[in-house]
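Hello forum,

I keep getting stuck at the same step: I have a sequence, I want structure tokens, and every attempt I make locally crashes halfway through. Rather than fight my setup again tonight, could one of you with a working pipeline run this one for me? It's a single chain of 332 residues.
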Amino acid sequence: MKKYSVIVPVYNRIDEVRDLLQSLSAQTFRNFEVIIVEDGSTEPCGEAVESFGKQLDVKYFFKDNEGRSIARNYGIERSCGDYLIFFDSDCVIPPDYFEILDRELQKIPLDCFGGPDAAHSSFTPTQKAISFAMTSFLTTGGIRGGKVQMEKFVPRSFNMGYSRKVYDSVGGFREMFSEDIDISTRIRQAGFSIGLIHPAHVFHKRRIDFRRFWRQVYVFGMSRITLKLLYPDSLKLVHTLPAVAVIIGIILVALGISVSPWWLLPIGVYLAALFIAALVSTRSVGIALRAIPAAIVQICGYGCGFIKAFITKIVLGRGRNIAEEIEIRKGK
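Reply #2:
Ran it on my machine without issues. Output:
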């Protein structure tokens, strides 16, 4: 019987799985099992997983492709730990992660918990710039585990966990975008405690180019409206800021072109602040320069997705209606 069960859904990520398992094999605290669930990949990682069989208590399962949430639930059903830990396959885990996690949970027991993510020194400059854009208070308001936050902490599936008791009460993940926010909300509504364990961070590889990053954050923006339909009180001011920034940015650019370049000054000041913050954080001019387009993609992609979903789902009532969202909420 293990204390922790690590559950990782995988889809065509052989190299990432190898890096993840290598980092888990170096843990200073060993009371955990690892469950890899291959979600119908065309390039299975079974042989890579098997190569770590002597270093880790690792189990490998292959199933038809149904989505990452169903894959996580599949892994949960085959786990034995007192706590269920979830990582994404593109994460690298610091060697003292479980030592820190176990120590902090003994100090302050939590039913559900999560930690922040960061960029590893081996990541590419673009990955580090994207990591800054996703974690900086200037871009996300610290909602991904920052020390300064504009809303209550919500664990994310790249680095989160909850107790077996929570699972028995609330269940697993639903197959939807922002499924981690959905389950965190259900856990909180059920009366369980949720907390940030800030020292228990992971290294998250992120997207490797801005095109893929745009698609990712665009979906994040759209899913925020789905979450509002599910949980009307879940939409906070911080979630609307990228959409507001997009609208204000368009107005300022239009005025700067048609009236006076001085209207572009607020945008210039903000971008300069981003560069300085990224330079202080990363100590690299190259990464700081890349952080500017990364932040623009992060804000505009999320904002555009949010605006589109707001117009189509709320203003026009297209797509899923509120009744259908409630049926999803009930697990039907």
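The longest helix spans residues 285-315. If your local run keeps crashing, start a new thread with the error log.
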